[in-house]
Design brief:
alpha/beta, 434 Repressor (Amino-terminal Domain), Rossmann fold, 3 domains, 6-stranded parallel beta sheet, 6-stranded mixed beta sheet, 14 helices
Length: 371
């Protein structure tokens, strides 16, 4: 934004708020001397007219980092977390010119080592932390301690709802499970037995998805039963073997809901049992390797959680608060989308695949815009 446009924007805000331009400038840039109610009114007007402060100029004039943000997100399963990381990294690159510094401390798997990394980030002098709360029981007291110290915490994808974190960005897991439950309930005959393949029920996200699915499925499938809920712990070998055992143990199984991105081993188990298309499969999220299973009818539908957009929004919320003192919304809920074979090509992951040169399909972190 040019300096002229900046001046016009602050003039307009001052006129609407009936305050001086100096008051507007102090409110937008987090300086003192502004009543909190006035500050929030000015920030709200700025949001409504689409005005954003010239953070780059502020950072350059200060000649220092305006904020330091720690990020703790898993690497595996990469089909999902690559997209989430990519949203964070793209947005981090955009705001780095404004003097915002990022410290990335990934963990290998969801819920493993995140408490240790969280403590390290707290000790490193960060102003805020963005994380996936895979182990909310252990993280909750740490999050509360961080917030007490003035370190703002934003959960992304997986929540620690009992904590005092500043905000969460996610597709509400219970709702996601409800959508899957209604879909499968309408796909299988009355009285059918179905199963849930979860990641780990310790994770609030996975547990709430299973709850939403179980409650809603019974409403849409008369006499339907949840025959089993199994944990695959995001491990492909474990998920494959447990699904095979499930299919042998319950040969009349009519459907399966996989409530994490780890669906390929379930597809492989259905293929091994010659049950592709016979057992209706609802999966979660989307990556290019799922495409042939959609086309073959193995996957009936998938519930998409917009991981790239989640990452972007988490960074924007944190930067807006730390730099411009804009209040966090307690929750940012994104709508789950239903992916079926006919709309598969419209989604970001599929479009990115079409634009990649041969030999790099599915590799690394993808770049692009959300649908």
């Amino acid at each position: 934004m040019s300096m002229a446009k900046q001046r016009r924007g602050t003039h307009l805000i001052a006129d609407i708020a009936k305050v001086s331009r100096g008051t507007v400038d102090r409110a937008l840039h987090g300086r003192g001397g502004v009543n909190e109610a006035t500050r929030q009114r000015i920030l709200q007007i700025a949001r409504e007219i689409g005005y954003r402060p010239n953070l780059a100029a502020r950072a350059l004039s200060a000649n220092r980092a305006t904020a330091k943000i720690g990020v703790c997100i898993p690497r595996e399963i990469h089909f999902f977390y690559d997209q989430l990381w990519n949203g964070v990294l793209e947005e981090a690159e955009r705001v780095s010119q404004f003097g915002v510094e990022f410290i990335n401390r990934p963990v290998q798997n969801l819920g493993k080592g995140d408490a240790k990394v969280f403590k390290e980030l707290m000790a490193s002098g960060v102003d805020g932390i963005i994380l996936t709360a895979g182990n909310p029981k252990n993280l909750t007291p740490l999050i509360d301690k961080a917030e007490t110290k003035g370190i703002r915490v934003v959960c992304v994808d997986t929540d620690a709802s009992e904590s005092h974190r500043s905000s969460v960005v996610y597709v509400e897991p219970y709702l996601s499970g409800c959508v899957a439950g209604e879909l499968l309930g309408k796909l299988v005959p009355p009285g059918s037995k179905v199963a849930v393949v979860a990641g780990m029920l310790m994770a609030e996200d996975h547990r709430r998805k299973a709850d939403g699915f179980s409650e809603t499925f019974r409403k849409h499938c008369l006499g339907g039963k949840i025959a089993a809920v199994i944990e695959g712990h995001e491990d492909e070998t474990e998920s494959f073997q447990k699904t095979l055992d499930l299919l042998r143990r319950i040969p009349e199984l009519a459907g399966i809901y996989v409530n994490t991105v780890n669906c390929l081993p379930v597809c492989h188990a259905l293929r091994a049992g010659n049950l592709e298309g016979k057992v209706k499969l609802i999966t979660s999220d989307l990556f290019v390797e799922m495409s042939p299973y959609f086309k073959a009818g193995t996957i009936a539908a998938s519930i998409y959680h917009q991981p790239h957009r989640q990452g972007q929004i988490a960074v924007r919320l944190m930067v807006d608060n730390l730099i411009s003192k804009i209040k966090f919304p307690p929750t940012v809920r994104l709508s789950p989308a239903v992916v079926i074979s006919s709309n598969l090509h419209l989604f970001r992951e599929m479009r990115l695949n079409e634009s990649k040169p041969a030999g790099v399909l599915g590799a690394g972190l993808a770049h692009g815009s959300d649908p």
